[in-house]
Structure formats: C-alpha cells, structure tokens
Amino acid sequence: MSYKQENLKKRVCWKCKNQLNFKHFCGSNKSLSLERAKDLWFNSNLEFFCCKCYIEREGKILHVSELKKVLILGFPNSGKTAITHLLKDRYLEDPESLLPTRGISIQFCLINNGRIAIWDLGGASTYRRRWIERRELIFPESNKVIYVIDIQDSLLFNVTIKYFSEIFNSREICDILGPELKLHVLFHKTDPDIRNSPTINKNVEILTQKINSINIPFKYEISKTSIYSFNPNISDSLLNS
Ligand SMILES: Nc1nc2c(ncn2[C@@H]2O[C@H](COP(=O)(O)OP(=O)(O)O)[C@@H](O)[C@H]2O)c(=O)[nH]1
Ligand SMILES: [Mg+2]
C-alpha cells in the first residue's frame, strides 16, 4: 500500500484531540484497500479515536447519550460554515478556503459525552425558500437554532431580518420548533480590532432593536462573535446552553 505521496488531511482523536496518522490507521486496518481507507479517513461523519481513547471507549468510559440537533441559519457569507467548523473541530485551518455551502452540510461532534449534529443550512435564496417550504423536514427535533448575521454588512440587515422573521414569526415553524427551543443570534464578524468601533456599536444597536421588535416566542440570546476570538468556552455555551 502506498500512502507516502498522498496529501492527506490530518485528523484528530475525537476525544483527546491528539493528532492521528493515516499511516498508522492503514497499519491497524490492513484489510482495507487504500481507496477504502481514504474514503473512511475523509468521511467527516465518522469518529476516529486514538488507541488509548478507543480502549477506554470499549470499557464504556465514554458513553454517548442522545443526539442533539443544532441548526445554523443565516444569509450567505455571514460565517455559518466557519462557525460550524469551529464548533466541530475547535479550529479553522484556512478561513479563506471556505466555499459556499450547497444545500445542507451536517457535521457531528461530541461534547460532554453527548453527540451533536450541526446542520449548516446554505443561505442562498433558493435554499432559504426551500428550508421554509420543507419546514417539516428541516425544523423538527431541533434543540437549538443559531442564527448568524454579519455585523459588518449593514446593507444586508433588512433582508436578513426579513428571513429571520419569516422563520421566527411563522406560527407553523415555531410550533414545529416547540417552546423549549433555544435561539442564539450571533452578531458575527465582530472582529477584535473593530469590536469597539463606532460603526460596529451603531450596527449592534440597530440590529438589537430590530430583533427585539420581533415577537419571538422563545427565549433568545444575542452574542458578538468572531472567528478571530472564538474559544472553547464560546463553543460550549453555544452547544450546551
Ligand atoms: N472578518 C471575518 N471574516 C469571517 C468571519 N467568519 C467568517 N468569515 C469569512 O467570511 C466568509 C464567508 O464565511 P462562510 O463561513 O463560508 O459563510 P457562510 O456562507 O455563511 O457559510 C469567508 O471568507 C470567511 O473566511 C469572522 O468572524 N470575521
Ligand atoms: Mg456556508
């Protein structure tokens, strides 16, 4: 089996986050062809463990409980996919390499022994319409919705708030989501260097007013986030609370 020349992405152990090695993975799974091994290695829905964590898992130290569902919604380019990566992997290798999301991308991660499915819902207009039309398929059994707004792009405020209210002012969608839903609105791209600038403060004020004027039937929280100041505490509070 030749894997030396392969430019394979690095993976980390799901539990301890130590880096894993494709060569060792092939060595421990000799019955797999190189193609099959690569398919598995690149499949982001699969969990990989290092030997130590795998043995502990076998010993039932790692219990996986229920699967929580988190939806990430918002306009294109607001930062949904970047946030999904940060929530799932805790790091973002190359923010510039993100491509527009086609349809839905579902990523799984494990937090405090609970499995979480993060649904990153494409924000292009055809998709936005589709999520609302197919609400019966998209919204049921969600534990949390994270709605992302690019705080720097004030030209889009009215349209993103319109989409937001199409979801959270819809009796039907709110009934599907249920009264226990946790809604988190992110004023995203509040980068550290502009966090306290007059423009951003003004944008925060405008958006907060717009959101507060919508009759949202859930408890909601507004946070200012940036990929440049994302940390594990923010991930935990977004996924756990
Ligand atoms: N300045 C800044 N750019 C960001 C931030 N988050 C994402 N981006 C950039 O915004 C662009 C769109 O991000 P992406 O996650 O693909 O947006 P999506 O279309 O909502 O999924 C990419 O070029 C990202 O690098 C942030 O916090 N600050
Ligand atoms: Mg995307």
Automatic annotation (TrEMBL):
Instruction: Give the signal sequence positions.
Output: none
Q: One of this protein's Pfam families, by short name?
A: Arf
- Keyword Cytoplasm present in the record's keywords: the answer is no
Q: Which GO terms describe its molecular function?
A: GTP binding; GTPase activity
Keyword match RNA-binding: no
What InterPro entries does its record include?
P-loop_NTPase (IPR027417), Small_GTPase_ARF (IPR024156), Small_GTPase_ARF/SAR (IPR006689)
Gene Ontology cellular component list: Golgi apparatus
Report TM segments: none
Keywords on this record?
GTP-binding, Nucleotide-binding
| Gene Ontology BP, a term | protein localization to Golgi apparatus
Protein name per Swiss-Prot or TrEMBL = G domain-containing protein
Check the record and name the Gene3D superfamilies matching this protein. Answer: P-loop containing nucleotide triphosphate hydrolases
Classification via SUPFAM superfamilies: P-loop containing nucleoside triphosphate hydrolases (SSF52540)
